[in-house]
Each structure stands twice: as structure tokens, then as C-alpha cells.
Amino acid sequence: EPANVDDGSSVEFWQVKAAQIVEVVVVVVYVAELVVRFLYYQWNRFFVKWYNVVLLLVVVAMAIDVLQALLLTYTYRFSRVLRPVVLVIYSQTLRRLTATIVKTLPRIADVYALLFFVVVIYAVAGVQLFGGMYVDSSGCALDDNFDNIGRAMVTLAVLITTENYPDCMYPAIFHPTRGTWWHAVYFISFVVVCVFILMSVVVAVSFDYFMMTFRDTVVEKKKKERRSLFAAFLVLDYNTTGYISFEQWYLLCRSLKGKRFDKDLARALFSLLDRNRQGTINVLEFFRITDVFMMHFYDDDDDDDDRLAAAEHAANIYYSLPRRHHYGGSRRRCIGRCLCHTAMFC
Q: What are the pLDDT digits (tens) for 155-207?
């Protein structure tokens, strides 16, 4: 809606008020959600999450904006530019991507500093070579010129994007008195150094640090998963034997999948986890429970022995292939082969 009714727009007065009422309702909902979050996290944990702090600042800005829109005749709606930030806060994928980008930027500061110094060096050389040459027929300076360091850096920044490349180079070549084709060496060398070399380095380093940050995130999630699974193992191992029997495993499957969970299927999953074939599951074998529960078994009314044999055959394949400590590679191919062989035999 417009900032005020008398700004020359065709919006009716009641439409503006209706939009303001809707905006007030939305702000009230956001405030209520912040109160619930604060009561859930408490003040010491609420401010640890960066997205809670960002949401608090955005909601405060929106509340101030709504109040001044209701009380004042003419207002500048400054909070509108902050509204897309709410989408980032409520989307876990966007939050993770934003956090990764923010963590990556400080690590590539050296590459951007090198690019900046190269631009400064070329800007100083450009002022010495082309100062006063970039004028039109009436003697007025062009937008892209090398009259001072600031304008020279802006011109070179435009040149890095390869936009208006002729406007940056041709006045130095075709100047009536000082123009020469040797000036093209300056611009060609700048493009080669900055565009084809340094910008490629920036992209490569950015990608490398982005992947490094992503791997750190995956490792942290894996550690959190291991801690949770270890706590679950301690709960299941109520008799402190250091392992889980099939009866305990079957109770776990029934609690997760329902009381009608097939016992033979539970035994097949148990055999996949029981790597040492001792009839029990230790804590290291229990850590692979997430991989096992992602497998799918198909029942076409065959004998139970065939289904169990298929599970054991898939388990032998699963444990015979080499393993890696990161996602992908051997483990992913191994799980795929287990699924294929299980589907063939079941």
C-alpha cells in the first residue's frame, strides 16, 4: 500500500486502512510467536540462535513501521526491505545456506584484498596514462574516465564485469592527439589478470571454502547423531551388559513402527546390524541403525527362510565392501547393492 493516501496514487482510503489492519494482525502474530520462543528457549538460549535475534530485530522494525504509519500522515516504510528476511528465518535450508555463505566470506578476504590491490595499482597507472583523455566532443568528461583515482577504480570495476568494454578502452585508443593502439595492452592485461585469473581464483577459493564449511556441518550433524544414538543405546541397555539382544531390539522396532511390526523383518534388520554374528548388537553396530532403517524389504508371500536368507546375503555384501568415513562412495554403493539383492531374493 502507499505511504499515504495523498501521494497521487489511485488507491482508495479504505484499501489503505484494510492493508494496515492486515499488517497489524501479522505483526501481532509475529510478536506472539517471539513470546512463545522466548518462553521455550529462555533468555540464555534464545539469543544463542542467530535467527531468533534477526527475527526479533525484524519484528521490532515492523512494529515501529506500523505504529508510525497509523499515527503519522506521511511515513517512509523502511521495514518493507526487511520482510524477505523472514523467509530465510522460517526456511531451514535457506538458514543453512545463509550461515554457510556468512562463514565462507571471511575466509576468502585475502583473495578479495589481492583483487582490490590490483585494481588500485591499475587505477594509479590509468590516471598517469589516460588522465584528461576521456571527454566528449563538447569537452565534458565521460562517465567512464581516469581523471582521478576514484573514477579510475569505478571504471576498472565496470571493466571487470566486461560491461561497456568499448566505452572504457576506445577513448584511450582513438584520442585525436594521445591515442595509440599500445594503450590496448593496458586494458587487455587488466582483463587477463583480473577477469581470467583473479576472478577464477575467487570462484575456486569460494567453492573450496564453501565445501569445507559444508563438510564441517555434516561432521557436526554426524557427531550430534552419534551422541543421540549413544544415549538411546544406554536407555535400551537397561541391564548394563554392553550389548542389545534381539528381544530388546524387537521391542524397539515395535515402539518405532507399531505393535504389529513383523518379527521376521525385525530379525532381518537385526542380522544386518549384527556384524560379528554373535547374536547381539554392540554400541558401534548400533550406530548404523540409521542406514538399516532406510532399507526397504518387499514381501510377496514367499517363505520366511528365503526372506531371512536374502537379508543375510545383503548383510554379507554390506560388510564385505570397503568403508569410508564420509558420506558417499563405498557406503552408498554398498547400500544400493544391498537393496538390489534384497529385492531380488525377497
A: 898 888 887 777 788 888 887 778 788 888 998 899 899 888 988 888 888 88
* 335 vs 75: CA distance, rounded Å: 61
pTM beyond cutoff 0.90: no
Instruction: Supply angle C-alpha 339, 340, 344, rounded to 5.
Output: 115
Helix H or strand E encompassing 96:
helix 92-104
How far is Cα 37 from Cα 63, in angstroms, rounded to an integer?
A: 18
Q: What is the pLDDT of residues 32-58, one digit of tens each?
A: 988 998 888 887 788 888 888 888 999
Distance separating the N- and C-terminal Cα atoms of the chain: 63
Residues 6+ apart with CB under 8 A from 306: 345, 346
* DSSP E strand boundaries for 3-102: none
SS3 135: strand
Query: Which one-letter DSSP state was computed for residue 140?
Result: P
Main-chain dihedrals φ then ψ at residue 281, nearest 5 degrees:
-120, 120
CA distance 9 to 228: 59
Calpha distance 290→278 (Å, rounded):
21
Q: Which three cell numbers stand for residue 107?
A: 575466509
